[in-house]
Fold these 3 entries.
Entry 1:
Amino acid sequence: MDDAREELTPADEDLEIKSGEGGNQNSSNYHFDSSYEPFFDSVVNGDWENAKECLATLLIPNVLRARNPAARGSTALHIAAREGHVHIVKELVLLMTQEDLEIRDDNGCTALHIAVQKENVDAVKEVVPLIRQQGLGIKNKTNGETALHVAAGSGNVHIAKELAELMREEDLEIGNSNNCHALHIALLKGHVHIGKELIALMRKEALEINDGQGYTALGRAIRLCHHRGDEYSEEAVIEMIKPMVAKNQKILGIVASPNDYIPVVEACMLLKFQLGRYLYSVTPREALMPPKNRWQGASLFVFCLGAKEFGINIQAPAIFDIHDLSIPVSISEDDGGTQRDVDVSGINRIYEMKLIHVRMFEFIRCMGEATRNRDDLTLVQLDLMKKSIFEACFKNSMLHAAGNLSPFSQSNHIQGASLQMQRELQWFKEVESIVPLAAHETRNTSDDLTARELFHKNHEKLMVEAEISMKGTATSCTVVGALIVTIMFAAAFTIPGGNNGTSGIPMFINENLFLVFIASDTIFLIFSTTSVIIFLGILTSRYAEEDFLQNLPTKMMIGLLTLFIAIATMMIAFSCGLVIMLHGKYSWVPIPGILVASIPVTSFVWMLFPLLVQTFISTYGPGIFNRKVKQWY
């Protein structure tokens, strides 16, 4: 400050002398006198020259500390900062003490608060170096926020960095009226760039602080990814939380309200599985293990299976207490966090969601391996435990649950209603194959229907859509096949070069290309006719439920494959015909002709070939229980 004062102009030196005259005044004297009004008006208008003239006739400390009641108790520095007059701010701070810079208006805001609210970087840079460190931690009265809170909420990284680097570490942890420190606010507002700066400066213990809603900064980052995923990808959030984890691993085991989940379970509950995979890789295993955290591991297990995110590498016996066939798994019914317990290790819940997987059997197997070596459990007891689990599943209508229609989110990646119907049938058949025969005829209590009857009832609309989809594809392909059959049939008897007028033998019968033409024309007629017949068979099918499992998809595959072969041989025959007729002087003509003619044919194949591949994989690929999954860690 002394160096700054040495640069004062002669006029300013007069002001400094005037200030010294009142040096014994109490700094808490903020009385506003009517004689100060011209000075305040000049500050409002940004006229420093006139303001200096006013100051020459006034007692400087008092006028600079005076709080104008007409301006919500603002000092001249407040007003200059609010109006954006940086040149006046610069002059005023040279005449004020550190305590003067901390004077608050009626809202409890210092001039620094005002400058930050206005996002005036230059004004902030003038005030911050001269204010005391403890002054940077002053809260306003409105919501108990420091200037750093305001900067974190506004998203101005330059101002936030300027403040944070000069503040005391303990002041970075100050909570507002909602107990949110600056990092909480930055993440609530989605200002990831500010969050990165604050993480580097804060003490590691500060990352363990919960805000008013029970979330640590890590919990807020997960919620940011959930609520504003269109702006902040999981990859971006992962990069931001990596420094948090590196600084303090204890945050990985802190539960967040209202669900009382640790971060990895919270991420999976919100279906952020890329984020969940990262958190799982760094979360200590004891945070998921019994006895203290037994339900955390079980909840994670259920949420992953609930979204078909398999491959989680937790040993079932390590998570679950095998003496307890009722494992408390907290299921959040909505974002508000309403919870309820699910019995039998969440398996019933999994069945209700139509998410049965081979992992359930692995659970039984692992449980068996873990208990066979224990003295207090006999093989008979183990068998009884397994039986109890299955009986509980059957009692809760596992097969009936499989008869429900899958949610759109689980089938929207499947091309066409016919393949969606096939997937529903495959799922039902898989579940049907593992339940006792008696369960097939069991009727539910709500509709008095067997599982098969319930399946039919719930899939009536999809059945209609699947039939329309299958017939639409078959009709289009039939038209295409019939059209090219007609054309190529005529072409087969109108051979290139014509026939010998005397013998009737084709003129180019000794040419190799002519033999290729005849062979490809023959193959074309065979396969195109076959495809038309197959597609006509699809159009006249009965369209029963079982037909969508293999019968109709197989016919569709054969029809598409034969049509593709027919089109390919047609192009070969066409190319050979052009070359034979235009050889010699016009031998260059067939090349562009063939390329241009290939465009519509290629487009047709390009549109329908993915359907052929997906149909084949869906029909003859690995079953639902046998698919390979990526291990989490």
Entry 2:
Amino acid sequence: MSELLPGYSPSFKKPAEILRLSRRRSRSEACPRTALFSPGEVARRVPGVRPFSPGTQRSGGAAVKRRNPFASLENTVEAKRRAASLVECDFVVPAVEKENPEPVQFHKVEDVLWEDGLEPEPINTTKSESPEKPLTAIEPAKGSVTYPADWSLKTRLLFTSSHPFSWTDQLKAQEEAQGLVLHCRATPVSLPQTIAEPKQCTELRCAFQQALVYWLHPSLPWIPLFPRIGADRKMTGKNSPWSQDESLQQVLMSEWSLSFTSLYNLVRAKLCPYFYVCTYQFTVLFRAVGIAGSDVITAVMSPTTRGLREAMKNEGIEFSLPLLENDPNRKQKSSETSQSDDKETGNASEGEEIPLDSDDEDESFLWLEEMGVENKIKKPDAISIKLRKEKNEVKLDHRPESVVLVKGTNTFTLLNFLINCKSIVAAAGSQAGLPPTLLSPVTFRGATMQTLKARSVNVKTRIQSGYKDQFSLEISGPVMPHAAHSLTLLLKAAQKGSFSTSLYTHEPTTVFNTSIHDQYCKEKDSTELVNCGLHPLTLEQFSQLSILGKTSLRQLELSDYMYTWKC
């Protein structure tokens, strides 16, 4: 045949035969290759292979124990390791019995939830970078029928429940209109304790639309007007024709002043329970008589600076620093400082020694007396001591302890001060010339009706025996205290007395929960506020004294119609 086909080689093999020999050679060399590794290395290289325990070995190399093909996935090493790592998460609830497993709680839906029909992604067990503080449990041991009022503004609410939130989707035109009318007329809606078919309940859906409404000024749809503190990046690049036009800025501030005055008059007439003034540097909360147990109108401002506090003093505004005054350590230091000030003003002219703020500084001059040169060294004068005191005041700037409380008629003086204060409007940057944001639960002059954004998602959560259907409802926007309480009342009836809530707080407003009264002050009757536009149960909650202090609600859970919460 070689004569017929010149160039033919007897060693020539077809490609199929070469591949077959290659596979045979790889199988024959498989055992020697695996023998080069220790059992532990093989277990690390091959996922799902359990480590081999040494025992009686057969002839040949070190054998590796194969994975049982009939073993459950829940029993593998990787699954156990993943389950153990879940305990390190902040909001993971410990596993309970399989008859009634509780859903796992998380910061965000995107971390562990996926829509139906998609492949599940691995759970991120790393710690969330949320700015929230560690949770502190202050709730009663067995729950309560209500929860304390939280006066901080929220940027987002995340409700989770084992029952669907489909009743919040696609409101009919008539239901939406009816909900807006109920809000404008301040008509409270009475719902039963449990609603069997929430999606078929028209009153529930109308009340949901009513709870989402809030009032805003100014209204610039292309610019986010909340939050204002630290919002320069979100506003960068937005069209702001007033930033370089002084006449336009005057028009905006003139309209803002009318709206601000209108809101204050509503609060004084007990037709508005409270409202917020959000500037690019601080936020002010005005509350009517009877709210938070007060017998006068109150205003809480935070954070403040020494310059702002000095300007308020120059305008004759009397205010207090509640967090400093209620601190016993601060009270002792302030009394010592006041005594030293009296000695400075009364005895400085007589040549007596001026006491310093700390004992260490007093002792630092003793060695001069021992050397006999104390009269040749210039001691600190009144100006130096004053500068030292001002330094301590500056340390409070932009901190929670700088919160200012204004009461009674001084709130009207504060109103005029804010209207005429040029520093409440940024002179440069993306917020230049933009008036502060006014947020109110009721309408006022120049206000624009807005609604919070609601989004429901059907999700799945990982539990001990597999996966379980879980449902979530996300509310985003400037969530004021009355809106959060109204939503919990609706969900209590619609979700059959069981849901969990994650509350995301606008941190500069957390100190608004500071108590504005002494601990022995009695709560003020709020019957005069029946026409302020709030639900009777919400008004009852807002009339209570603040007990959260410098904290705010982070987690709220309702189980069997009983509330528990964490801060």
Entry 3:
Amino acid sequence: MELKPGLSALVTGGASGIGKALSLALGKNGVFVTIVDLFEDRGEEVALLVEKQNKAFHPDRNEPSSLFIKCDVTSRTFPRCYPLTQTEFPRLLEDIQCFSAQEWMAAAFDKHLETFGGLDICINSAGISSHVPFQKDKTDGKDSWRRVIDVNFLAVVDSTHLAIQAMRSQKKTGVIINLASSAGLYPMQIDPIYSGSKGGVVMFTRSLASLKSEGIRINTLCPEFVHTEMGSKVNSKLVSLLGGYIPMEMVVNGAFELIRDSSKAGSCLWVTNRRGLEYWPSDAETKKFKVKSLNSKGRYSYKLPSKIEKPDAFDKIVVHTFDHNFRRATKIVRERLRSPIKSDHILVKILYAGVNASDVNFSSGRYFKDKNPPLDAGFEGVGVVVEVGDLVDHLRVGAPVALMLFGCYAEFMMVPSKHVMPVPRPDPEVLAMLTSGLTASIALETAGKMVSGEIVLVTAAAGGTGQFAVQLAKLAGNKVVATCGGEKKAALLKSLGVDRVIDYRKEDIKSALRKEFPEGVNIIYESVGGDMFHTCVNALAIYGRLIVIGMVSQYQGEHGWKPLNYSGLCEKILAKSQTVAGFFLLHYAKLWKEHLDRLFDLYSSGKLKVAVDPKKFLGISSVADAVEYLHSGESLGKVVVCIDPSFTQPSAKL
């Protein structure tokens, strides 16, 4: 999320310490801030400072640009009402309001929404430490360690819940940051209750990572000791051993990084003098406990085949000569199944294979400098395991799997087990998430640096990958513009939530973009090339990012892929600090699993739709027909070939 004037933030514990510093830092960026705290004098002072800072950004604003709201987040019960006479009691109720903690917080959020019209950022910063060592506390803890849990953990849960509700009700994207502590990452013997409460905040926050699919990113910030009123009470020798007090500026920078970086959700940013800003746990540690979500969850069941026949030989498609014409370049060959199977390999029966625009680049030899035909064709497939090697213990016969390897235009494939991804079902919809879905997901995040609140243009948007790009951009909280050719494609895109569909068969794309988006668009997901590329470069806004994932209009022709001269490109992107980035999926293989899990989570929860072209291509002999159909411009969604028409399963419910 870009920090810009006009956003609004609610900060608990905003009257002092880290909360105060973050409130003032937000005010310096023109953000409207509500400070929620128990201490009225301090809170009013901070609100006044934020108001002064906001004047530079909103000089003509008559309404307040900052608020202070008094709130006691530890009030778990109604205050005691002493016995009064019948005449005195009603009068007292008119003068005194009795709130529980949840009601205090709910009232604060309501006032914020009423004043600023929405909620973009929520920072839960309120925190206290124990004044009596837990081991020596002989009370019931009501005024010591139970209060610490109330403030440090339960209040964070309450506020996070209210922030999520507010963002959902406004249908807005948002960022929530929960202040924890390094004491929540490793034990702090001097205050085990403080350490435990902050550890609870860390795990609570990390468990909410999936809300990113709704555009709500929740992260936690874990600084070591900061020179605040609470931090100054810590033993100076311990602080010295940890490298001294952390500058408040470093904590603010960490919080702003979590706000700005759209890839961070469920992340824990550890802030120390010794190591700087570091995300915890490391990728290596995460792998120790992360499970394969595709193998363990999904909306539908899959019935394993009772028996799969293993033939002596099978058909596959190979490129026998390099040619831009896929039909001329390829042929079907018969190959014997090798036996016995290698110990670390599996044999897969391919049920569906995906068709891609770049199949013609493969058949023309553009992807190879040192290889000659014959080459196995096809990039992606889904199927079932027929046989496993002796050393393979994570897959069983009949298990549904996906492959992203050369050679998927085949009835069977013998592959190393490490290259196989378990999936819930071997369906065309799952197949569409592979090359097409992964390209959109990874490209928008890495090359596009996609955040919320921007304008995203997707060309050829009704195709296999375009359908994913428009939905992911929309889910991230952006305005989406899409180009296509034909009423059916336009209807599909509108059903996927696209804000503006430009059908080039009915209107001029250049004119529409120039008229409706005079300041340009922020991100362009481009796969057409040729004249469309020129149009996209000219449509980019300042700081705009153009992602080139292909150039389908240049792939075929009498002489194959003909490079075009884009004169003046350097001058254009320099003039507006723009970025033109190429994206080739093979270079991002390490991200496939993570993004495929993410796509399936969205799909299984109903937030992502998958369109598969209704035209049927049955059997391996229909592959060339399918490739030509895709390049005809008539396809709608993902084009798929059913390699084995005899295999049937109940269709997935979209």
